[in-house]
Amino acid sequence: MRHFLDFEKPIAELEGKIEELRRTTDAGGIDVAEEVGRLRDKAQSLLKSTYAKLTPWQKAQVARHPDRPHATDYINGLIEDFLPLAGDRAFADDAAVIGGMGRFRGRAVMVLGTERGNDTESRVKHNFGMARPEGYRKAKRLMELAGRFGLPILSFVDTAGAFPGIEAEARGQAEAIARSIEAGLEAPVPFIATIIGEGGSGGAIALAAADRVVMLEHAIYSVISPEGCASILWRDAAQASTAAEALKLTADDLRKLNLVDAVLPEPLGGAHRDAEATIAALGDRIADLLEPLVELDGATLRARRREKFLEMGRSGVI
Amino acid sequence: MNWISDWALPKISGLFKREVPENLWHKCPACEQMIFRRDLEAALHVCPHCGHHMRISAVRRLECTLDPGFSRIELPRAPADPLRFRDQRRYTERLKEAQAKSAMDDAVAVAHGTIEGQRAVVAAMEFAFMGGSMGAGVGEAIVTAAKLAVLQDAPLIVFTASGGARMQEGAISLMQMPRTVIATRLVKEAGLPFIVVMCDPTTGGVTASFAMLGDIHIAEPGALIGFAGARVIEQTVREKLPEGFQRAEYLLEHGILDLVVKRSEMRATLARVIGLLRVPLVEAATAPAAEVPALPAPEEPTEQPAQA
Ligand SMILES: [Zn+2]
Question: Which residues belong to zinc fingers classed as C4-type (chain B) (predicted)?
Fold first, then answer.
């Protein structure tokens, strides 16, 4: 059963009709097949027109779509011989951050991701993708390990942000994020980050201080959630749509501001309508971006990465 | 400018007011006792009754940290309002208002000078400037301060006071986190100390970037320091927050700070830290000969019975 978003209701109705007709196909004849074809064209063109002009708030909903491929799906689809690694060596293993080694198109790489889970049980296990300090310390440890052995780092970011909890604060959430950002900036190996869904604030940049940052077409990347921003600046969480507009959090906006390096188009109707194609396309894009980077030595990579981030916000006005 | 309303009216209305205007006395927000403003000023805005450390301006911070004669530096300007952001008000309006109120371009003041004779670069955040929030201007100031420290071969001291990221700059404000982290690397790679003094409040993106990467972490007593806001945490975990949660003393206990230092002792403490990190060997104090009684001339060795 496909999950439809609020603004997709007209599409949902058409697709529902198609399903119904198809179920009665056995009884019907050529007329039904024709009708199904006609409805399918209509649904497709409606999908096209809807997705051609998604508002930032609608994009935020697509970015958080429950059926959207998650970090685990990208790892399963792109990384062979994946060996998960665990723990921060101090306190715990945080399943909100998954990581490990494997081969990307033959090359040994270090992989990191924030995983939200896709059913109640796994969502609880991964804490809905909201990491605690242990998660960021694991990320830092794995980035340093990658650096020592020359493994390029690939990260898949999809998180509402760092977990706001009592223990998380007591164990130094802020310090853990800062160190993870630092580890990314310092890594003497190529580092490619992809914002696959929601890039939520400090919890996202902790895994995305990379040489190349790719954003999926309908992903969002923001300093604060639209809801959070609305409740602070508009004193009304219901203004999330207005806040999403103002925050300039879409892939297009971030590309225009030169804060990300590439935008990967998604299949019509979003990544979840064809996860396999999305994952394959991202693989190709990562391979293209990685190729020139593996030629560079650690010092050059680090220097260029610094230069890139130091330039951010210095110029560029929307 | 209407001089009647701006200048004359306050003066006139002052004539009819009671003779204890609010500007002579200040009420401590913690213990609610009244403090004579001149005493408060002399005590560096620390309540003489309960020790509460009130927020002070960035400029005042520079004055009470550096030796007289320090120089404030001009900071590069970041593009104003890159997103053309507007909530209930325009960001440009909020900026202009903050600039007029604080006489600063953005929420950081940077100066170089000496602390008890030792060279230092000091950056101080201004909470009154849009909650000390970090946008490109603040990021630029921290990077500039770091470069200045390297240029002058001086330690960098940052006094933080910030509610976090500046939402009106969207993802640009988020990118100030890696930017300011790079700034800390520049200082450290030059072999210079990076000292952070966390003041009330230090939260959000500022805490989760340069503020937590100091060689030495100091905080003022009672300062609120953390990543997430207390309200968000309460709503998420649906638990009552522990006593003293996210206060300087709590962080000290949890191993996140080196020291909690009273404002009156901050300058001397910073001087000690810099001295120990930067002056590895101090010649043993050699006082003028006249003032030191000469050691008695060694006596002729005499036969001494071996001790039993
Ligand atoms: Zn008091």
Answer: 28-50
Chain A contact present for B246, CB below 8 A: yes
Mind telling me how many Å the CA of B248 is from chain A's nearest CA?
Answer: 12
C-alpha A198 chain-centroid distance:
5
Burial class for A302, CB neighbours closer than 10 Å (0-12, 13-18, 19+): buried
The CATH architecture that domain B55-279 belongs to is Alpha-Beta Complex (3.90)
Sign of the CA dihedral running A8, A9, A15, A16: positive
Name the residue ranges covered by the structural domains of chain A: 6-53, 60-311
**CATH code given to domain A60-311:** 3.90.226.10
> Residues A145-176: pLDDT tens digits?
999 999 999 999 999 999 999 999 999 999 99
CA of B201 to the centre of ligand 1 (A): 18
Is the pLDDT score of B74 beyond 80?
Answer: yes
Mean pLDDT over B168-184 rounds to 97
pLDDT bracket for residue A26 (50, 70, 90): low
Residues of chain B with CATH 3.90.226.10: 55-279
Which chain A residues are closer than 8 Å to B167 by Cβ?
223-224, 229, 232-233, 247
Cβ distance B165 to A201 less than 8 Å, yes or no, reads: yes
Please tell me whether the interface predicted TM-score (ipTM) of this complex is above 0.90: yes
